[in-house]
Each structure stands twice: as C-alpha cells, then as structure tokens.
Amino acid sequence: MATDFEKSVTRTTTNGAGLRIGIVQSRFNPHIGEGLLNACLEQLRQSQVAEADIDIMTVPGALESPLMLNEMALTGAYDGLIALGCIVRGETYHFEIVANESARCVSDIQINTGIPVANAILTTENEQQAIDRMTIKGAEAAQVVLEMIQSLKRLSKH
Fold this sequence. Notes:
By secondary structure, the chain is α/β, with parallel strands linked by helices. It is built from five helices and four strands, in the order αβαβαβαβα. It has helices spanning about 5-10, 30-45, 65-75, 95-115, 125-155; strands at about 20-25, 55-60, 80-90, 115-125. It starts with a helix and ends with a helix.
C-alpha cells in the first residue's frame, strides 16, 4: 500500500528506450531489497527500458555493492547503474562504517568512470523506516539514473 508521501510524488517519464541499466542488489535485509527492486523495475518499465536491457547482480551486503558496481561500470556495457540495499542502524558503530563507506565508494565509481550510479542503499534507524521508504526510493533510483544518463548525453553534445 502506498504511503501519502508516495502518492504525492509525480514520477517522471524519462524515456529509457535503448538504454542499458545494471542493478546491484544487496541480499542483506532481503525483503527490503526485493521491495526496492520491484519498484525500480516497475519505474524502468514505465520509462520504456526493455527487460533485455536490464541486468541484475546480487551481492551479500552494502559493502560488497561498490566492487560489483565498479566492475560493471568498467565493462562499458551500461549507460547507468543502480545500487539497491538497506542498512538498518544497530547497537554498534558498524552502521556508520557500512553506510559511510558504501556511499563514498558509490560516489567514487561515478566520478572515476563517468557512469552514473543511482544510490538507493537505504540507511535507516529501524526496519519500519526502510519499509516506508523502499517503494519510493526504488522508483526514484530508476528516475535518477535515467535523468543523469540523459543529462550527460546532452552535455556531451556541446
């Protein structure tokens, strides 16, 4: 069921026809990851990205996502990449390490390869926050990567 926030968001209709998209999904917190993935795939479909142009790789957790994203970027096969996962705060400092390092590495991949990466690795205080955000953030990740691909293409024409 959609939240009031989700209902109020207007999804873009960026045309993704002909674009190749790679998705890396963390298997940690699997029900959140599946919710993110389903919303992301639905938005990509609505944006005319063909199923055959979407590759999905899974990794154990958020810290493993950057390596897979980087390797996918280096293949040159993708116009854009999407990182999906969830890190829920625990009782130790480990949350900060995982959240900060995964986000930093995802940003570094974009800068170092020139391939846009939409980061939808949620960082939440509790599981309910993740559940509340997974649908909107999954869809937003698809929108973000498509917008960035199109913006970079326009820039390269100048």
